[in-house]
Amino acid sequence: MDRRRIQGSLLTGGTESTVRGVCNRTDSPLEGSILVAPSLEAGLYDAIVAASAVVCSSGGRTGHMQSICRGRGIPVLRIDHDDLADLAGEVTLHLDSESITIGPALSAHAPEAGTEAPSLQNLGSACAVIADLRDIDTINACGPGAAQVESFFIREEFLCLAAGLSPLDAFGGGPTDVTGYGKAVADRLCMFVDALLPSQRIVLRMLDLRSDHAASVTERAPITIEPNPELGLHGARWLLGSAAYRDALHAVLGALHDQLGDAARRVHLSVPFLTDAEEFTQVMDHLQLPEEVPVAAFIETPAAVHAAEALCAAGASELFLGTKDLAQFYLAADRNNHLVAESYQTRHPAVLDGLDRVITAARTAGTPVRVFALHADLKHYLDRLPTPDGYMMCTAELERMILQSR
């Protein structure tokens, strides 16, 4: 039998050196399969999380759906588009050689010896970036080291994907739809809080649904077609124009208080895709949140880097540094475009300078600051950056560090 080997580029790794499975070319979940798709879209969420690996022909290492895969330890291999058509039946993904072979496996490859990695203690007050409830259970089942994970960070749009919610459809309906959405989000968050250890909390990054992503999870609401959604109407810009989201968020907080009482304080909020402190203040004025609700600022644009000191002064409860988007905007290199992968560098001196500026400003102001890091970048950051309050990492990478610490 001709066992053709197709060379690719590994976008996210896994826990094994090889992964075998049957190809799934549909959007229906098939447990343990190898999902084959031209690109990773939100509509494939169920199929992605059921897969043991994903093969695609576009996208970068830090795209949103790739980040879900990294968090779950699901390898993603990118190959040429013309090669996708050849993938059928049983295939084997080889993580060490970043390739895939077609046909039943003849033998397994022995795992390669790893290099010495930073320890759990290097992470400070660690934050796990999660996609759904299962990720909290995964971390907290790791033993005593899980207590070093002080917080779990989730994007509201990922929560919607896991819960089957369509936010823009709800916001386009009447008050009952808006309240229903808010209660559904609160119900999900209550399950998250129940799974926490006593010292842990949840940070919800408020809805940041770009128009291209919104189109795949919306059935009724009109979606504006934007020429460049990454730089379009999303994040804080969108929040400022949505009264329905403000009402939904109030419904979330009200339901959390009714169901959890004082434990509702374990749910914090963060404002996404900010430009400056004035925008943060406008969002706070627009949302009209209770004073006791902590609201953090998510820094992922160069402009927000230069506004770090002012954001602290404006009342941000803490700063989260979104390295993936920050690198993209500093270097004008789309993190989802493999054609510019060599230009997208999370260790670029300009990116490191931006991280340094924010950490220094936050520490001077006495505002907690946390930095997202890929495991591959962690030692580089530890050697070159001031010490933040903690590092943020995806679930699978953080789980491995906790288990290694035992």
UniProtKB/TrEMBL annotation:
Please list the cofactors this protein needs. Answer: Mg(2+)
Alphabetized, the UniProt keywords read: Kinase, Magnesium, Metal-binding, Transferase
Say if the entry is tagged with keyword Repeat.
no
- Residues of the signal peptide: none
Q: Which domain of life is it from?
A: Bacteria
Q: Where does the record place the PEP-utilising enzyme mobile domain?
A: 31-77
Q: Which GO terms describe its molecular function?
A: kinase activity; metal ion binding
Locate the PEP-utilising enzyme C-terminal domain: which residues? 199-371
Which InterPro entries does the record associate with it?
Answer: PEP-util_enz_mobile_dom (IPR008279), PEP-utilizing_PTS_enzyme (IPR050499), PEP_util_C (IPR000121), Phosphohistidine_dom_sf (IPR036637), Pyrv/PenolPyrv_kinase-like_dom (IPR015813), Pyrv_kinase-like_dom_sf (IPR040442)
Magnesium as UniProt keyword: yes
For this protein, the record's Pfam families field holds: PEP-utilizers (PF00391), PEP-utilizers_C (PF02896)
Q: Which family does it belong to?
A: Belongs to the PEP-utilizing enzyme family.
Protein known as: PEP-utilizing protein
